[in-house]
Specification:
By secondary structure, this protein is α/β, with parallel strands linked by helices. 36% of the residues lie in helices and 18% in strands. It starts with 25 loop residues before the first strand and ends with a helix.
Length: 154
């Protein structure tokens, strides 16, 4: 079945897909995976015009671990998403370091092993915030368990 409309004198041309200019960004050296199928872009600083950082990762990995990214595919409208080299680009309003910590924790299998390894509090806080925001319950639970192990209540 063809998407083309019949060629008639009063037929309106098909709408063109919206194209959104991709603002320049720097590729994260560790989390730019050539076989990734989604690029997450965030600002490095809080000021307007700050440097932007891109992470090329796998939508499937994100969707398996975080409900937000699983549902994301249901809201994508054809022609409304921004792409670069055929890969969907998604701009997020997160801190670059927090997102990097979150992605590392998702991708690095032994991130919390052994359980009593001291991971700095800022990193754990970043992961906890991102896991909560993106509805990543398993990772959130691992962070809480890790915090309880290294900061016992008694």
């Amino acid at each position: 079945m063809s998407d083309r409309r019949p060629e008639t004198a009063d037929a309106r041309p098909n709408k063109r897909a919206r194209t959104i200019g991709v603002k320049p960004y720097t590729r994260d050296p560790r989390l730019w995976l050539e076989d990734g199928n989604i690029i997450l872009v965030v600002l490095v600083g809080d000021a307007p015009g700050s440097e932007r950082l891109g992470f090329r990762v796998h939508h499937g990995i994100l969707a398996l671990n975080a409900e937000f990214f699983n549902d994301l595919v249901n809201f994508a409208q054809p022609g409304e998403s921004c792409t670069e080299d055929g890969v969907q680009l998604l701009e997020l309003q997160d801190n670059a370091f927090a997102l990097r910590d979150f992605l590392y924790a998702l991708y690095i299998n032994g991130f919390f092993v052994p359980a009593h390894t001291v991971i700095d509090f800022d990193t754990l806080s970043n992961i906890l915030q991102m896991a909560t925001k993106y509805l990543c319950s398993q990772l959130r639970m691992r962070v809480v368990e890790h915090l309880c192990a290294i900061y016992p209540s008694t």
